[in-house]
Design a protein that fits this description.
Blueprint (H helix, E strand, L loop, with lengths): L1 H21 L6 E7 L10 E4 L15 H18 L3 E2 L6 E10 L15 E10 L5 E10 L7 H11 L7 H8 L1
Parallel strand pairs: 2-3, 2-4
Antiparallel strand pairs: 1-6, 4-5, 5-6
Length: 177
Amino acid sequence: MKTLQSFIQIVSIAAAMSACASAPPAQRTSASSVTAPNANFANYRTFSFGLSEKPKEGYQVTARSLEVERRLRAVVSKAMIARGYTEDTAKTDFVIRLAAGNGEGPNPTVERAVTPPAEGFIAIDIYDSATGSMVWGGSAFAEIDPARIDDALLQRGVDHMLATFPAGKATQTASAQ
């Protein structure tokens, strides 16, 4: 009986240890967006992509930034089309500019005993084609693995940033019918 109890205790401890070891760490993420007060999205139907922007202060362009932006462009394009906009480089109503970079997290000036996790930054800035004025901007931050690009994390960042982005004419017309 004592051997059975010892065996059960060992199995329980081993199970608890393996559960702790296999649980991924919680990923810290955030996203936000802002719309210019005078922005009029009612007449926007088409979009195109412009040159990339520099990452936010405290973040650097890395060797992976171009690949992140390439993947980000595909995700943003798909999201805009789903919202009723059409990608058109010949006649565009607004231009989307993307940015991506890596940093050390929210406060890189604080000395730490442990190396902080890498933090990734992505941004979507939208400019009115006729005026060149910025009409909308969104940014997202997340703890990342600098050795690989997490497409699901990019998708979540775009979804969160664009959650309140206005629907395009095609979507508005379809929902009115």
